[in-house]
Amino acid sequence: EAQVTQNPRYLITVTGKKLTVTCSQNMNHEYMSWYRQDPGLGLRQIYYSMNVEVTDKGDVPEGYKVSRKEKRNFPLILESPSPNQTSLYFCASRKAGGSYNEQFFGPGTRLTVL
Amino acid sequence: AQSVTQLGSHVSVSEGALVLLRCNYSSSVPPYLFWYVQYPNQGLQLLLKYTSAATLVKGINGFEAEFKKSETSFHLTKPSAHMSDAAEYFCAVSTNFGNEKLTFGTGTRLTIIP
Q1: Quick one: CA torsion of B93, B98, B101, B104, rounded to 10 degrees?
Q2: If you measure CA to CA, which chain B residue comes closest to A36?
Q3: Test mutation, B102, B103, B109, chain A, max A CBs within 10 A
Q4: Neighbours of B46 (CB within 10 A)
Q5: Do A107 and B42 touch (CB under 8 A)?
Q6: pLDDT tens-digit profile of B75-113?
């Protein structure tokens, strides 16, 4: 089944404790993105990647890191989480080329930073 | 720069009535425009997209949207609302101009009144 998976789905942590949220897609998509969703603010793009070893900042990159060492994986790293990073996070992927192919979204990761 | 404005964070319509969700965009280059739907506790699903072909775009579940350049709008409509349409709807814009930036609106929660 074609899908984007994220782990963990739920995470409660404390301020300053490094964490990684994994994202993996099995569709051989070139493009991958991370978003955070907050009430009243919609989804905001954190980082995106257009291929292996190619990443760039979205609208709200502060406090986050990403890497793209393999095509299928795009982990989101919070080196020193803070309470304002409490949010619902989505990973998405899509195929390059053609007429803006559809983005496929993962199920989301709900992060709480105490 | 690109941005999206969704008028009305909450919209309620009666079952069988017309659904109209408003979206206005700002983009310095010709845009690609999208509507996504999010059902409770799920990720986002693409409803429809405009990528510079026909200005009237038909999507899934009976939804359609019309791109109006003169009004910088991309409103979403459905002639007859069903209970299953209750969800949150997001408009999004991208230029797909050498990057993967995708900007979402703040969302409109649609409630269907029996």
Answers
A1: 0
A2: B104
A3: B102
A4: 18
A5: yes
A6: 999 999 999 999 999 999 987 666 677 889 999 999 999
